[in-house]
Amino acid sequence: MKIMMLTVAGALLSTGLVVAEPAGAREWKQEYKRGDREVKRELTSSGDYKEEYKDRWRERKFEEKADGSWKEEYKDGDCEVKRERTSSGEYKQERKCK
User: Fold this and answer.
1) d(Cα 49, Cα 65) in Å, to the nearest integer?
2) How far apart are CA 22 and CA 61, in angstroms?
3) Predicted model pTM
4) Of the candidates 6, 16, 37, 82, which lies 20 to 30 Å from 76 by C-alpha distance?
5) 34, 73, 81, 83 from 95: Cα distances, Å
6) How many Cβ atoms sit within 10 Å of the Cβ of residue 18?
């Protein structure tokens, strides 16, 4: 069974996928990079979650805190969009276009 697991892990690494790394109790990091696509995900011990996605056309950043608040930034064509929700439930959205 170990031989099969090593073969699968080797195949995943050769395609550009880096298997999630446990960084401690309730913590992990994952990175994926292949060609022009790059994804990074992270969960911290305090419950905060971060994700970054980049490719040739798009870029997106997302953060979620343990208290339920979150923030997202992404590009939509020539526009940059920032969305945010606070822990009290207040929602904000800002859009800047060139």
Assistant:
1) 6
2) 22
3) 0.70
4) 16
5) 30, 10, 5, 9
6) 14
Q: Which of 48, 49, 19 is nearest to 32 (CA)?
A: 19
Domain ranges of the chain: 2-97
d(CA 12, CA 52): 20
Residues linked to residue 28 through DSSP beta bridges, in sequence order: 22, 43
Looking at residue 26, what is its pLDDT?
77
Tokens representing residue 26 in the block:
């309730």
CA distance 38 to 32: 6
pLDDT, one tens digit per residue, over 6-44 is 344 444 444 565 555 665 667 889 999 998 899 999 998
The tokens for 88 are 């009290």
